[in-house]
Amino acid sequence: MNTASSSSPPCSILLLAGGRGQRMGGQDKGLMLWQERPLIAHMHAVVRPLTDDLIISCNRNLQRYRAYADHLVVDRQHGFPGPLAGVLAGLEQARHDWLLVLACDAPRVDSTLIQALLQAADNKASPVMVRQAGQWQPMFSLVPRSLLAALQAHWQQGERSLLRALLAHDLQAVECAVDDPRLANFNTPELLQEPP
């Protein structure tokens, strides 16, 4: 079941839910409620029809996340080392040549934005990322599996920034407006109180 546009490459999808949730007082962000459902449930509803390989990166509450994914991955390093660790684990697990990377706290993302990322993929196998008013948004990225070894090398050399690692590989932009509501991150308790 891969119902992404026939002109787009098939992709695995990685939902990043492995952070320490500092802005949530240490709570597991993906399981926080918005509109009476966990954030991960909102994300699942959007991306499930688009892939037959849905992966969640999580470092706790694995049993609760299992219902929303085909596969779970955890960081190899302890201590919540950041999104790049989750992306590396996702790339190792992915069954398709492209891995779409989304944060678990962006419940307003839609299939149109996802299709824009997929359609920006080119034969050079360059990574793709949303750029919003000149600012890169690493939590909306498309990464070719062919970069796994190179990204692992960046990690071994001490790099911990997903953005900096991808900028070294001819990163392509999907431009979005500064006020695009689809890019909103619900990463504080106050934001979870926002209306739909």
How would you sum up this structure in a few lines?
By secondary structure, the chain is α/β, with parallel strands linked by helices. The chain is built from 6 helices and 9 strands.
Structural write-up:
Helix 2 (62-65) links the parallel strand 4 and strand 5. The model has no long low-confidence stretch (mean pLDDT 87). 25% of the residues lie in helices and 23% in strands. It has a single domain (11-193), classed as Spore Coat Polysaccharide Biosynthesis Protein SpsA, Chain A. With 196 residues, it is of the alpha/beta class. The two termini are 29 Å apart. The protein contains 6 helices and 9 strands. It has helices at 39-47, 62-65, 83-93, 111-120, 148-156, 162-167, and strands at residues 11-17, 33-34, 37-38, 54-58, 71-73, 98-103, 128-132, 135-144, 172-176. Helix 3 (83-93) runs antiparallel to helix 5 (148-156). The strands form 2 sheets. Strands 5-4-1-6-8-7-9 form a 7-stranded mixed beta sheet, with helices on both faces.
